[in-house]
What does this fold into?
Amino acid sequence: MTDELSPAERYAASRVRAAEQATALAPFREMYDFELDPFQIEACKALEAGKGVLVAAPTGSGKTIVGEFAVHLALTQGRKCFYTTPIKALSNQKYTDLVKRYGADRVGLLTGDNSVNSDAPVVVMTTEVLRNMLYAGSQSLLGLGHVVMDEVHYLSDRFRGAVWEEVIIHLPESVTLVSLSATVSNAEEFGDWLDTVRGDTEVIVSEHRPVPLWQHVLAGRRMYDLFEEKSGRDGDQGGRREVNPDLVRLARMENSRPSFGRDKRRGRTMREADRERERRQRSRIWTPGRPEVIDRLDAEGLLPAITFIFSRAGCEAAVQQCLHAGLRLNDEAARGQVRALVEERTAGIPDEDLHVLGYFEFLEGLERGIAAHHAGMLPTFKEVVEELFVRGLVKAVFATETLALGINMPARSVVLEKLVKWNGEQHVDITPGEYTQLTGRAGRRGIDVEGHAVVLWQRAMDPAALAGLAGTRTYPLRSSFKPSYNMAVNLVSQFGRHRSRELLETSFAQFQADKAVVGISRQVQRNEEGLAGYRESMTCHLGDFDEYARLRRELKDRETELARQGAAQRRAAAAVALEKLRPGDVIHVPTGKFAGLALVLDPGLSAGRVGGHRGMEYHDGPRPLVLTAERQVKRLAAIDFPVPVEPLDRMRIPKSFNPRSPQSRRDLASALRTKAGHHEMRRHRKERSPAADDAEISRLRRAIRAHPCHGCADREDHARWGERYHRLLRDTRQLERRIEGRTNTIARTFDRICSLLTELDYLRGDEVTDEGKRLARLYGELDLLASECLRESVWEGLAPAELAACASALVYEARSADDALPPKLPAGRAKDALGEMVRIWGRLDALEEDHRINQTEGVGQREPDLGFAWAAYRWASGHGLDEVLREIDMPAGDFVRWTKQLIDVLGQIAAAAPEGTVARNARRAVDGLLRGVVAYSSVG
It folds into this structure.
């Protein structure tokens, strides 16, 4: 080929090759034994040209190559590179990768609980660590050339997303930003914003998967392809994909009603042979069991596989089912390798803790090549599963969706049991973005020729809906940025209030809000044109129809208002009746899921002692905890009592009664039925409607009948146009309010926060007071509550274990709504301090309401959760793991995670508190907590 070029062309080509060899990219490419993809080369060239980059590409496509080039570039230029990740596990993994490439002396690690070689030129860290460094003005920022933000789409996360925007906004201008994101549908919009706040930024989007993904549905014994390729005209292969017609027929047959012996199309009795054929066809459709699925994948050469189950208990149950079914995916040699690695990784865990953690069952599964992976597991166990899976020694992993978030565990196949998950409040369908994220794990680059996504057949499955999930790439990036108290004092300290306000207006949240205003304004213009047409259609020749329509609306509004008042009065009467309940009262729950006979265990009144029982504090009225006649212990709400309830009888609750014991519930429910089963439900007499005697309603009805338009033959036609007019007018006014509300929203929230902080003497204009400087060192959802507790010396005189119990309320948040008895608390000073913390929170909550700081919008202080206080107290006091876990009924992984977060907040308290007993005891509490399973966190 070269011989065919002219001398001039050969010379030009040699110049190009020489120029490429002179770049930093050329030696970097030689580090890999595969050719870089075009999108990777494009991004690397943009970085070397001094531009920032946003790379949006599918999971497993090799985005991190671009981040690693930023590391290479920084080292080549003699500058620093910070590589940030959203989770500690991903930080540990990336640290290990970079150490292998560049050596331990050039790479450091900073997470909440690990600090390794933090002065190295390349440091891997969680995003929160970098945010804290920026606010503290850390010396480590000197010489920083590049920052890689891996998984930058995390800025959509409503709990932590604001941290990503804080970092992007506050990084020095001299730092080049490398943003790596999953495929999002508004990458260009995000790139526009980065261009605005960070300067020249190249947006590189790749939809190409390096390993093709095949989609399947497993029904009974058969694996169906989800899509069927339709060739174009003249037999070309560039046609479209359609849903497999076999699947459509299967769904139609499965969801059709069973035959009753008549063939309605022919009007004659269906032959026995036809019925037998239909029965055989139906018998081929079922949802395969978990061992059956793994066995089938193994037979088809589709292992290793990750099966996503949206339940921790479901993951553990799946492993047990596979073990009981006798599945063995490893040979003797592999079993030996597994045992050796597991024993090496868990050598530091005492034998007594291994029993508590279910180690031997865990090891048995691993030796057979089967494991679970979820947040409730001990971090060490999860790391072992990840390492064995990557080595090919674990071939079937049952995982919750958290595995899809960043951890590098690609598989040949991904299995989805269901397309519905519990979001903490209700069961919801998974989104196209979530489906893409989960199935993106299928197909290992350089190992697999293709990846496979398998969805298990479920009753009433719609293949077209599944194809929509699989074929849609709608995953928009939405900002979750909100100012916080800590952010406010840090910004004012560095920039003053005016400049801070301007900085916040450059956030992605405000950028998106301002762009949305343009579309809303266009809608307002269209609405105003429609209003003119509606007004003309509602014109009546007999009089002012607008006035007549107004009278009709006033009548309707008055009737609605009276109905609402009646409902409110009934609710108030029901609440008063609930407040009179006492433990031991037998009641009849009038409605709801748990309607029927019930025994009051705890009246659920405001905080304090009620009849010898400590109540819970609820803001929506009393919430009695009851035992139903069907042996269920449930916390009821006001909605279950639309009418007042009165005790039917009284019963003694045994002191030995344990609501978590099935036997205790069974015995007491039996006694309840015996004691009060003969009582009949008292029917509540319906009261006369207030509307019947209302003078205003009578006046409006007279005015309507007397109006000239009332006699119009086309009155109802005019009224319909009038309804449309006023409905559109109401919508238009709402749009106008939205335009007004979206302009400068972030800055207005910042002003309200500053106003509250000024009232509490954390700020004085542009000056941050000593109290404000303390708040600047406290991060987390309850930063202001922690600061107020330090100010009011709430924790003075507490022992280290008692301080740990109190600090746990600042971090812990139960996974689901409290449905049992009040949490167990340490006695004495710790209990008093926790009560004082709740009182201070109540005062802050009232202040936030005064300053219009709305918790539902993600701003403000949530109520402290005391559910982990007992566990923190016991662990910090030196009690064993078995004892602590048994008392709180919590998985080991959750216990370790919450304890590590508690250690983090105690470290902040030690740094923020003036030197004295609180600071000393916070450090001692950390020492007491950082032991046993909590100290087993590993690097790499």
In short: The chain has 33 helices and 30 strands. Confidence is low (pLDDT under 50) at residues 233-238, 259-270, 607-617. Residues 550 and 899 are 62 Å apart (CA to CA). The longest strand covers residues 213-219.
